[in-house]
């Protein structure tokens, strides 16, 4: 299986780069990025927060990527083409809907220390979130499990780690609406390519 191969080729590099960039963009202004801001403001201990985000993301996206790989192995190419195409288009629409955060997601786990609170709160917040669903779809699209999980995890860290140190000063400088529109366009393009140009990476 190509996902387990250590050889770097254009397909796996594309999977890694697309996964990194798409998730980094999708995460801007997302619920889990807002959670990073809340955690940083509450605890003011960036290193255990960043460590908790990394571990939670890695575990969550490893599971999501496994689901994507499993879907690929059980569905035919034509069915996968339609599911991925329509899912990416739905994700493009979802990207234009602002996220909100319930701060109870943090307070309910604060007794477990900074790292434990971050780990549990971030893992639970990521369940069913845009970036988790994107990881499932990207893993199914590229059939390159390790590269997709590595890319989506890196994308999450690129979006969230700076926020932990710089706080809302960084977020306020980023045109979140524009970023979401760019992300939506990328997902839309991926959906159209999956539907009408099945040879462009899907199940390749």
TrEMBL record:
Primary localization class, coarse: membrane
Cellular component terms per the entry's GO annotation: membrane
GO molecular function, one term: metal ion transmembrane transporter activity
Cellular localization per UniProt: Membrane
Taxonomy, superkingdom: Bacteria
InterPro entries: GDT1-like
A Pfam family hit: GDT1
Keyword entries, A-Z: Membrane, Transmembrane, Transmembrane helix
Recorded topology in the membrane: Multi-pass membrane protein
Residues passing through the membrane, by range: 49-73, 79-97, 109-125, 145-166, 178-197
Similarity annotation: Belongs to the GDT1 family.
Name of protein: GDT1 family protein
